[in-house]
Amino acid sequence: MAAPINETSSPGPLEPAHPAIGRPPAGARRPRALECRPVSLRNLPLRAPFALAALGAFAALAPAADRTVLSIGAHAGDAEVTTGALLARHKRLGDRVVMLHLTLGEGGNPKMSPAAYGEQKKREALAAAQALGAEALFGPWKDGELRDTEESARWVADVIRQVKPTHVITHWKASLHPDHAAAHRIVNEAVLLASLEGFASAHPRHRGVRGVYYADNWEDAEGFVPYLYVDVTEDLAAWKTAVTCYEFIRGEISSFPYLEYYESLARVRGALAGKRLAVALEVEPFAKKRVLDSLP
């Protein structure tokens, strides 16, 4: 397996990849004017490969300080475009939000070498994280080469043990892109491994994941049926600021209208949820089970 960005075989102590991406003081408010600011990779500490707290009606189940949302995407840009508005909402609520990009998606620009585009994608990912107030983590894999091996599940499990998320979001199981489908399987296995005492690691086990959720991605549409809808009416502006840090979202690489598609999708999901704008998520069938003493 390719070496991680931090040049170790497993993630080291997790810390913000850029000083400006750390957690703000308690009670701090997001500035009104948001701007995608380019982040230089020069002099960045590359030690650590560095996003949904309780959803909708579930938000009251835990105080904000107790929630950490980890959004895991196969490529830099996947987490932001599908869940960025949701992450912005939970950051605004005072939660910690973290994004793990398993690959940079460096093979997506036919006009640039993978190495050069990878550097660009990393700068874009850091700028997007800064716009969302999130932490950004980077995996060791190459675009198109993500595989659901025991080694990859163990690597992600080690990250989970360090980040200690309460909620995890990743790709739905069926996808047009093999990296997305692999990410789904890796993350589910990693959540289990991270909770097991028998999984040897430099970090203690973490059994605090309250739920795993699957993002609404146009490439992962087969069999995806929205189950949870979260109101993001106040957060789409922050999402737009973050995702337009990426050249491919701005329409300068791909012919697919990413920005227009996901803006429209937020309106459609909002209409179905009785809100102006919303993000939808799916869960495993067993997570839909409810036991009540009487009808609600």
Annotate the secondary structure layout.
Blueprint: E1 68-75, H1 78-92, E2 96-103, H2 114-132, E3 135-138, H3 150-163, E4 167-170, H4 178-195, E5 211-215, E6 228-231, H5 236-243, H6 258-273, E7 278-282
Parallel strand pairs: 1-2, 1-4, 2-3, 4-5
Antiparallel strand pairs: 5-7, 6-7
What does this structure look like?
With 296 residues, this protein is α/β, with parallel strands linked by helices. It has a single domain (49-288), classed as LmbE-like (Rossmann fold, 3-Layer(aba) Sandwich), CATH 3.40.50.10320. Helices cover 30% and strands 13% of the residues. It is built from six helices and seven strands; from the N terminus they run βαβαβαβαββααβ. It has helices at residues 78-92, 114-132, 150-163, 178-195, 236-243, 258-273, and strands at 68-75, 96-103, 135-138, 167-170, 211-215, 228-231, 278-282. It has a seven-stranded mixed β-sheet with strand order 3-2-1-4-5-7-6. α2 packs antiparallel against α5 (236-243). The longest helix has 19 residues, at 114-132. It is globular, with a radius of gyration of 18 Å.
